[in-house]
Every structure is written in C-alpha cells, then in structure tokens.
Design goal:
- Pathway: Cell wall biogenesis; peptidoglycan biosynthesis.
- It is an enzyme of class 5 (isomerase).
- Provides the (R)-glutamate required for cell wall biosynthesis.
- This protein is an alpha/beta fold.
- The chain has twelve helices and nine strands.
- It has two domains: 2-105 and 216-262, Rossmann fold (3-Layer(aba) Sandwich); 110-214, Rossmann fold (3-Layer(aba) Sandwich).
- The chain has helices at residues 2-12, 26-35, 57-72, 84-97, 110-116, 128-132, 134-143, 155-162, 169-179, 199-206, 216-229, 251-262, and strands at residues 16-20, 41-45, 78-81, 103-104, 121-126, 148-153, 187-190, 211-214, 242-246.
- The chain starts with a helix and ends with a helix.
- It is 47% helix and 15% strand.
- It is globular, with a radius of gyration of 18 Å.
- Helix 2 (26-35) crosses helix 11 and helix 3 (57-72) crosses helix 4 (84-97).
C-alpha cells in the first residue's frame, strides 16, 4: 500500500509541458500558474522557427511534434499547446499519437465574446494560419449569424513580442493601422497567445469599453479539469517551479521569457 501511494505521488509531481512557437505562450503559462501554483512547469519556446502563423499547416505540424517529443523526454504528465496556430494544425494528431496524455489546446475565445455581446461587432485578432484553418472557419460559420465577426490578421504582432517590444512607437502605429478603422467594436478576441502582451496598447487604441478576451484562463480551467479527472493534480503546498527552454540559443530569449512571466499585462 505504501508503495502504491509513493507511485501515485511520483505521478502527480511530474511537470506539465507547455509550448509555443515562441515566447507568447507565456501569457497562457501565467494563467496556468495563477490557477495551479503548486504544479511544476516546463515551458519550451520555438523562437528559432517563429512565427508559425505564416507557415504551412504541414510545417507547423512537424515543428509541433518535434517540440512535443522533447517535452515527453522530460516525463511530463500533461501538455498545453499554448499556441493557437499549433493547436489548429496539430492538436488532433498529437492526441492520436499520445492517447494517454492529457492535452489542452488553444482556440480564439469567440464563444464567450458572442455570449456576452450577441449581434454586435466583435474583432478576432489572430495569425493568418489560425484564421484560414478549418478549426476557425467552422467557428466562423457556426457563429457568424450570432454576431458580426471581423477577422483581423496581425502576423507582425508576433514579431514585436518576440523582440520584447511591447509599447514602442512602431507597435502603436502598427496596431493603430489595424484597429482604429474597426471602431466601434464591443469585444476584441486575442486569438494568438503573443497578443495579450500587447493588451495595454490595444486597450489604448480601442478605448475603455470593448471587452478584450483571450483563451488563457479557459485553457487553465480545462487543464485543471483534466488533471482532476486523471487524478494527477499535485497536492503539495509549496510553490511549483517553472523552467524555461528555447530553440533559439541566444540567452536573451530565456531572459525575455522570465521577464514576460513576471510582467503585469492585465
């Protein structure tokens, strides 16, 4: 009996793997840690291959599998694909290859935006690949009559965040060009995990009234549900550890990762 308890404890204390095309997924990691602070996390940013959003679906799928294989070698107990683009391209295939691994993906939080603002104008910001993938197109077809959904491709915003450029003159100008012509809107859905880091600038441009929503909190709740179902929640009372890795060998990427994890973006 004691040996069984020891094994169960060993299972629950295994880390959770989180990955993104770069450092943007740290916005999701922050939500995971906020809800489940006793868990250990391994975050892998594939900045050497970023952005995913301008690549083909096949490319993104192959890159995603390469990262997941690295994380599996770290004996992870669950996986969070903290990237809307990678989720669109590869989540089904990852679940098929690892059927016993709890997997959480990200998708634009269109449904809650429509539930709050039915029949109103809602902007959906995302990468080009996310917007053209079947997963989002199904969302678009399902909800288009329930609200006026406006697709806003914003591929360059990923690059700004990857450089740690969160409030520059150039970023303000770029987002003003994208968002100012859309006003008024009732909500802005951030359909890329890089985008929440630009939330203060987005807020400045769209004004105080629109609801700005992203999928991070929902992903955290889904992870909690899956871990509870699989009896894998860590019951320790100490704060969990977070380790950062990146495919870009420049140590600045790890420094940026830690900086973004500590940043206040609400």
């Amino acid at each position: 009996m004691k040996e069984v308890e020891k094994m169960a404890t060993a299972e629950t204390t295994r880390p959770i793997g989180v990955f993104d095309s770069g450092v943007g997924g740290i916005s999701v990691l922050k939500e995971l840690y906020r809800l489940l602070p006793h868990e250990d996390y391994i975050f892998y940013g594939d900045s050497a291959n970023a952005p995913y959003g301008t690549r083909t679906t096949a490319d993104v799928r192959n890159l995603s599998f390469a990262v997941v294989e690295k994380l599996m070698k770290q004996n992870i107990k669950a996986l969070v694909i903290a990237c809307n683009t990678a989720t669109s391209a590869a989540v089904n295939q990852i679940r098929e290859r690892y059927p016993n691994l709890p997997v959480v993906g990200l998708e634009p939080a269109v449904k809650p935006a429509i539930e709050r603002y039915p029949q109103q104008r809602i902007a959906v910001m995302a990468t080009e690949l996310t917007l053209r993938e079947e997963k989002f197109q199904k969302q678009l077809n399902r909800y288009q009559g329930a609200a006026k959904l406006i697709s806003v491709p914003a591929p360059d915003l990923v690059e700004f965040v990857e450089r740690g450029e969160l409030d520059s003159v150039a970023l303000n100008a770029y987002l003003t060009r994208l968002l100012a012509p859309l006003k008024p809107v009732s909500a802005v859905v951030l359909g890329c995990t890089h985008f929440p880091f630009a939330r203060p600038v987005i807020r400045k441009i769209v004004g105080s009234k629109p609801w700005i929503i992203d999928g991070g909190p929902g992903a955290a709740r889904e992870l909690q549900r899956l871990l509870e179902t699989a009896a894998l929640l860590n019951s320790q009372n100490t704060a969990g550890q977070v380790k950062f890795y990146n495919s870009d060998p420049d140590p600045i990427k790890i420094e940026l990762s830690q900086k973004l994890f500590e940043a206040v973006i609400d």
